[in-house]
């Protein structure tokens, strides 16, 4: 492992912009057996930044799920389509579907060969947030805080199973129209 990768495996407190979350996510993706993202929104820039490492993980057989929101129409429809096209069938992409409630979490889960971890963050899936923005994140390791990790894990699973819908061609077509209408 390179000295940089050692740093990104050891440090838990991430305080961009001089210490961007992207480098930590990239390091975890290279080892992950399973990847789960929970983000309030995804931009095209974030999708383009993360597509290649996620595509590489998918090529290794890594299971990847992403749950995002459409609250306030901040998620860009092309970002969803781009991730589906680049990452492929290994990606299960869903959107939060409970109406009348804000959706603003940011968490990045990784199941690794010898542990699991979640980055609890202020950073959504956008290039700026993951690379140059003032964003704070904290890595919680399952081995060090199993009860806390389990609470986050169970809540992700509950939201994914009970309060989301898959991103299908029909969903994208409808959302794209709504998103464009909001932009004009």
From TrEMBL:
InterPro entries per the UniProt record, alphabetical: PLD-like_dom
Descriptive protein name: Phospholipase D-like domain-containing protein
Domain Phospholipase D-like: 39-138
Gene3D superfamilies per record: Endonuclease Chain A (3.30.870.10)
């Amino acid at each position: 492992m390179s000295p940089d990768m050692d740093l990104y495996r050891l440090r838990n407190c991430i305080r961009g912009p001089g210490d961007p979350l992207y480098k930590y996510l990239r390091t975890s993706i290279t080892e992950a057996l399973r990847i789960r993202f929970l983000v309030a929104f995804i931009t095209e820039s974030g999708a383009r930044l993360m597509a290649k490492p996620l595509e590489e993980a998918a090529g290794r057989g890594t299971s990847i799920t992403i749950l995002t929101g459409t609250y306030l129409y901040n998620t860009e429809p092309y970002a969803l389509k781009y991730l589906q096209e680049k990452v492929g069938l290994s990606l299960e992409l869903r959107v939060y579907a409970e109406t009348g409630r804000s959706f603003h979490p940011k968490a990045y889960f990784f199941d690794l060969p010898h542990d699991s971890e979640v980055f609890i963050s202020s950073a959504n899936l956008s290039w700026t947030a993951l690379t140059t923005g003032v964003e704070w994140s904290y890595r919680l390791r399952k081995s060090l805080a199993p009860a806390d990790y389990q609470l986050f894990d169970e809540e992700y699973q509950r939201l994914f199973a009970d309060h989301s819908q898959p991103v299908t061609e029909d969903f994208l077509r409808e959302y794209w129209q709504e998103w464009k209408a909001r932009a004009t």
